[in-house]
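FAQ
Q: What does a multi-component entry look like?
A: The components come first, one per line:
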Amino acid sequence: MKPDSVSVSPAAAARLPLYIRSLKELAHSGVEQVCSRDLAEATGLEAHQIRKDLSRIGNLGKRGVGYQVDGLIDEISTYLRLSRTWRVALIGYGRLGAALAAHLLVSGENFRLAAVFDCSARKIGARVGDLEVMSWKRIPQVFRECAIEMAIITTPPLAAQGVAELAVEGGVRLILNFAPISLNVPTTAVVRNVDLATEMLALSLQLPSKKRLRGPRIARPTASWASA
Amino acid sequence: MKPDSVSVSPAAAARLPLYIRSLKELAHSGVEQVCSRDLAEATGLEAHQIRKDLSRIGNLGKRGVGYQVDGLIDEISTYLRLSRTWRVALIGYGRLGAALAAHLLVSGENFRLAAVFDCSARKIGARVGDLEVMSWKRIPQVFRECAIEMAIITTPPLAAQGVAELAVEGGVRLILNFAPISLNVPTTAVVRNVDLATEMLALSLQLPSKKRLRGPRIARPTASWASA
DNA sequence: TCTTGTGAAGTGTTTCACAGCT
DNA sequence: AGCTGTGAAACACTTCACAAGA
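Then the predicted structure of the entire assembly, as tokens:
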């Protein structure tokens, strides 16, 4: 058994959410116990890797038997500090923003949508679940009042930098940015970019056969990549 | 100068789209020449890494001077085989699908939306740009006829596996999956998953200060991560 | 015998330091 | 002097092989 402070690598940490998702799927269809090979099947990763990742969190399985699904979900969730709920704000209530808001309102549990902002007078005041779209001018104030921990930016690219600065001013330290632009924020904040065009370009690079880009291994095995 | 076949690593390849995006931004604001430090600033990566990545493609810069912005864009685009346009189909015309379709219709250039599918009779026949939403039953046939190269899946999770199989049957080898489920497809196809919940979980792990997950390095420097 | 957990080996990636042009 | 390009070192991650436990 390792001390809890010796933690998993960043690469492994990025896979843990995927394990939780697959475990919940399995639990939902009545599976109570899994072995590393079952999980490999469900996630598209290697059994090797899953065992190594999980073993870093603690001795979660029984040798010769496998892992208890419920127990494993709990252990990983605890490790990821998912017992709590994160307060999330959405900035930009266009088509994409509305789609994400709809997802957030139903997915519940780990993330709660706590505020929605837009700059268009036409949208301000619109209802989103039991929230109301507010003016972007109120971002710093509302972020502080509601103790928003994560901002999701879905504005047009030119507006993104400005609202990101307001969000940081409001004390936010986690930003999920869907605008196709590199945000410049202080080191107190972490930005994760999700850009459709970049994803598509990266994907098109991976076109298999006709061997491109050195050798048969075509993709770095990451949580969001599956090569089979 | 290296032979063209000795290619960049997968990790570097994943960063190239980001370089193109930043270079286009710079070109748009009138910048004609950049040095590796400028690009580092624009992308949030390290100058070291940018020089190394670019040098693998060829001798693109002038020592003591830097890189020509236009020339660099061309070189990277050529390297990534971006002279051509990919034919893309969207499967699932809900809120998210509609938002993505709108982006695709304007972004043009490297990707062209060539077909849209849904399973709901209410949506079939709706116009999307100059396309018409078709029944999912026609996926294999239309994929072959239009020689679709990339499928974007935005269906509910339970439908995703089925439409992915139809898409593969239609000959597609690149799948961008927004449904929160692990798709099971033959090795002839590559799947890239983009899942809001997973992205948010991975992001929340990176909450800075209060040092979590070993040491000061909080994120694997990937194209889509910026820690400052 | 089955499966986990883990040191060790192998592989890939980043960082460094500096040689080589301009 | 300034900046690129690159071998070498440092680091991180994955894969392997097998010991240990049920």
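Q: Is there any commentary attached?
A: Sometimes. For this entry: The first strand of chain A starts at residue 33 and ends at 34.
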